[in-house]
Amino acid sequence: MKQQKATVTGYVDAKKVLKKAQSTGKKAEIWPYVPYNLVAHPYTAQAYDKKAPPGYVRNVETTATSMVHTQEEKYTTIFSDENPNACSIM
Fold it and tell me: For the segment 25-65, what is each residue's pLDDT rounded down to a tens digit?
């Protein structure tokens, strides 16, 4: 109450919660930060924010850059020594 903040946990639709909170006449917004381990690339320009609390970054959507990275990762694991089903080229 002192900070004028509410925390909602669980599996809920954020838009519905926001709409319900705004219907009270108070200012309401979704907190833009998530734990950094939930973001594919937490130190990109879009995600990193100096104002974020420690261990948090901006909640950003997956970009095409991260999609390319995962494709490259798939190709490199095909020939990995750690992959028991890997191919080998002679």
Answer: 888 888 888 888 887 777 777 778 888 888 888 877 765 55
CB 41 within 8 A of CB 25: no
Question: Is 10 part of any domain?
Answer: no
> Does residue 73 fall inside a structural domain?
yes
Q: Residue 46 domain-assigned?
A: yes
Annotate 31-63 with b (16+ C-beta within 10 A) or e (fewer). eebbebeebebbeeeebeeeebeeebbbebeee
For residue 23, give every residue at least 6 positions away whose Cβ sits within 8 Å of its Cβ, in sequence order, or none.
none
Percentage above 90 pLDDT, the chain: 4
